Inverse folding.
């Protein structure tokens, strides 16, 4: 007889914005873990097109960008038989639950979010869209709507995950048990949690950047990828011991070591022990990155010739996602007295 105590697989939820060029940081910090989690979890992955509205954009380009991102995720290994892939805007409960989160969070809490501070540092807060400020409430809604146990993200999202947990705990203690408290699943140190810009290794590799020469785009030509890696900023050290993993003292070299370690499933310090020259390290990093990126590019080219297939995946995904998210929303409405 089957035991009724068979443990349920963990519910996994994560999202990625369709704005800007997807890059190696997205792949190593998040997407490849999404692919891995498909074998162990009940996974929901969304292209967060509503989050993309926090920056200006052309409607036709937005639509295309969401399709491009969904196609890339499939090319990177998401399997519609093993996960639910959908667009955030196809599931109304995200925006509806976000309002409840806005009425749970405090202004001070949102004002402390470093992503908001970073993204408004240049243009100033006065002209920033309110959506950029309330963004973490929508993200909390994305996660809580699915009763997610686990949220695979890069290190930069740790603070947003902590806020999500705080909001869920506050809502539960005020209105009774409603939401599952999620855990951030961030790669361990040295394994891709925070890939840095190759041209300025003190900054995170990012989709929206004014330093594209240090961003390895997943759609870049292989020759460009190789060139960017070979020109990566290191330091003026030479001689014995110059290749070592020390993110504070040697950010450029450590970033390269971390790339190779993450791609080869090794420890960055161990990798360092095999090299004495930066040039040799860069050559091997370039090979490892191309080995990872070229098959994704090939598969992307195949899938982009089948937009109907991708659209069908998203439509089916939205149906499955809607069923889960609408039920959670109803639970939250009931709890709060609507
Ligand atoms: P933007 O720069 O526009 O904010 P982004 O590059 O941070 O975009 P997102 O769509 O916000 O990309 O993030 C998707 C996922 O990729 C998130 O889980 C995020 O933590 C992860 N991620 C983004 N950049 C990096 C990076 N440099 N290293 C590791 N993970 C990253
Ligand atoms: N805020 C994230 C993207 C994001 C997300 C989510 C990640 C939106 N909703 C839900 C995990 C779970 C970012 O800026 N990288």
């Amino acid at each position: 007889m089957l035991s009724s105590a068979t443990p349920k697989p963990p519910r996994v939820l994560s999202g990625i914005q369709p704005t800007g060029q997807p890059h190696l940081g997205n792949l190593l910090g998040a997407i490849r873990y999404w692919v891995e989690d498909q074998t162990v979890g009940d996974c929901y992955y969304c292209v967060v097109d509503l989050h993309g509205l926090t920056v200006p954009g052309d409607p036709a380009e937005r639509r295309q960008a969401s399709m491009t991102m969904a196609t890339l995720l499939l090319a990177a290994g998401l399997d519609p038989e093993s996960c639910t892939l959908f667009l955030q805007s196809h599931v109304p409960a995200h925006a509806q639950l976000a309002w409840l989160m806005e009425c749970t969070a405090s202004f001070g809490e949102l004002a402390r979010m470093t992503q908001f501070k970073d993204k408004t540092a240049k243009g100033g807060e006065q002209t920033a869209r309110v959506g950029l400020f309330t963004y973490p409430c929508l993200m909390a809604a994305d996660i809580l709507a699915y009763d997610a146990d686990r949220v695979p993200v890069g290190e930069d999202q740790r603070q947003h995950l902590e806020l999500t947990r705080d909001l869920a705990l506050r809502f539960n203690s005020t209105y009774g048990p409603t939401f599952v408290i999620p855990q951030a699943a961030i790669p361990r140190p040295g394994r891709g949690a925070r890939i840095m810009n190759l041209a300025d290794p003190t900054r995170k590799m990012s989709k929206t950047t004014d330093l594209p020469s240090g961003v390895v785009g997943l759609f870049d030509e292989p020759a460009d990828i190789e060139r960017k890696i070979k020109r990566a900023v290191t330091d003026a050290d030479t001689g014995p011991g110059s290749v070592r993993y020390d993110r504070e003292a040697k950010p450029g070299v450590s970033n390269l070591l971390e790339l190779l370690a993450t791609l080869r499933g090794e420890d960055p310090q161990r990798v360092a022990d095999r090299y004495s020259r930066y040039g040799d390290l860069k050559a091997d990093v370039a090979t490892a990155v191309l080995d990872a990126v070229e098959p994704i590019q090939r598969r992307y080219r195949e899938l982009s010739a089948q937009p109907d297939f991708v659209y069908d995946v998203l439509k089916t995904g939205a149906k499955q996602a809607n069923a889960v998210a609408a039920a959670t929303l109803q639970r939250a409405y009931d709890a709060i007295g609507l």
